[in-house]
Amino acid sequence: MSKIIFLGTAGARYVVAKQLRASAGTIINVNNSYLLLDPGPGTLVYLAKKKIPIEKIETIVVSHQHLDHSADLNIIVDAITEGGFKKRGTLFLTESALKEGLLLSYLQPYLKKIEILKPNTFYENSPFKFKTTCLLKHTAENYGLLFYLPEGKIVGFITDTAYFEKLEEEFASANILVIYTVRYTPKEGVLHLSVSDVKKILSNVRPEEVILTHFGMTMLKANPYKVAQELSNELGLKIRACYDGMSIKI
């Protein structure tokens, strides 16, 4: 049985800086192997709190280099490799993130492999299989992700992006859709999804379940659980608001 654990649900600078929600990453557990997605600030601490064995993390995926998605990357790599004494782990990240020095140079040889994320490409690091989407509309090179789980389910992550029509096409196959919903209302020039954008997406995509996460201040003020319930009633879909530490079994 596969499991997804949302260690943290913070999605904007103020919420991260004040730790109004945890800013740790997301764990996907398949056959007792662990994939870590977007290790933001505090990920190492929350892995320990959840008693997730750091040495079992064999796969790390960083969607883009912004700190709320990557701040704990270096300490995680150091931890899983026991300071370089055990060559472990495969890291997937964008070319721009690598060029910007997101992973410190002395840590790079500690890993088994570093792979560059490219648009609409399949990747595999057993037992994990996933595919990137097209380039999203954000202030850094960033891709959405579709994870293919052994239960036959596809879990899609719409990471940080402004809305554009191709999003529906890119995530049409997802059985479970995780949407990074930073804003309650849209704001000009802010390249993040809002609740109205979520409605647009879900008017054309009908997954079995939708999980909202990565909340900014306007979403927290609006009460994410209330927003999710209202969307469920309006759209006739199972929609949940994520909370720190929430886990779902596939």
TrEMBL record:
This is Beta-lactamase domain-containing protein. Residues 35-215 form the Metallo-beta-lactamase domain. CDD domains: metallo-hydrolase-like_MBL-fold (cd07741). It holds the Pfam family Lactamase_B_2. InterPro entries: Metallo-B-lactamas, RibonucZ/Hydroxyglut_hydro. It comes from the Bacteria. Signal peptide: none annotated.
